[in-house]
Amino acid sequence: MTRKKVLSSHVKRLLTSVSDHGARHLTEVETDLRQTSLLLEEAIEKLGANFMAIHGVVSAQQETIDLLLSGGKPDADKIASLVAMPNEIGMYVNAAVTCMQFQDMTTQLLDRTLKRVTGLREFLGTLGSSGAEIQPNAENDEMVSLLSSINMALAIQSLELRSVLRKAVDQKHLESGDIELF
Predict the structure, then answer these.
(1) How far apart are CA 48 and CA 101, in angstroms?
(2) Based on the number of CB atoms within 10 Å of its own CB, is 81 exposed (0-12), middle (13-18) or buried (19 or more)?
(3) Is residue 39 within 8 Å of 174, Cβ to Cβ?
(4) Band of the pLDDT at 179, cuts 50, 70, 90?
(5) pLDDT for 12-56, tens place per residue?
(6) pTM value?
(7) How would residue 8 be classed by pLDDT, with cut points 50, 70 and 90?
(8) Kind and range of the H or E run holding 157
């Protein structure tokens, strides 16, 4: 191969590698951000529904209390409903607390996203600092060697970043029942 073809082959491989690694990590960032958005949206919707349900039970309870305070006598259905209300309120409070676990999951997702962005910045920093070592009058063999070492360093960084980031947060809907917390 001619000097120009060898060098262009290594430059092409390096640029393709940078593009592939960068795109892969940015796709993961995008996925984590979308998942975070879904979790937040669903959790807030469910929190609102549970708080409104608690309000409904407390309002019904207050109506019965007002009836009793005014000297009225509640019928059997009202009495049974009044007896069941603490359990019903407890159920809605437990459901609301479960929905609040979204904070932990979103924190994990955001932390992982930040690690990806930091890793990608370091990845590009390695490319920049390594590229600064290239001398304009370098020999072909020296350029090929430097480009190969840059490509290897970037591949190692990308693998290290992927291995550091756990995939433990994989739930998309809170009602699935298998929320993983730490």
Answers:
(1) 14
(2) middle
(3) yes
(4) very low
(5) 777 788 888 888 888 888 888 888 888 888 888 988 999 999 999
(6) 0.60
(7) confident
(8) helix 140-164
The CA-atom distances, in angstroms, between 128 and each of 39, 131, 144 are 37, 5, 17
Mean pLDDT of 61-85: 91
Residue 139 three-state SS: coil
Contact 99, 43 (CB under 8 A): yes
Query: 123-140: per-residue pLDDT in tens?
Result: 778 777 777 777 777 777
CB 138 within 8 A of CB 146: yes
87 residue type, one letter: N
Mark residue 173 as left, alpha or beta (left: phi above 0; alpha: psi -120 to 50; beta: remaining). beta
User: Which burial class, exposed, middle or buried, applies to 93 when counting CB atoms under 10 A from its CB (0-12, 13-18, 19+)?
Assistant: middle
Question: CA-to-CA distance for 61 and 49, rounded, in angstroms?
Answer: 18
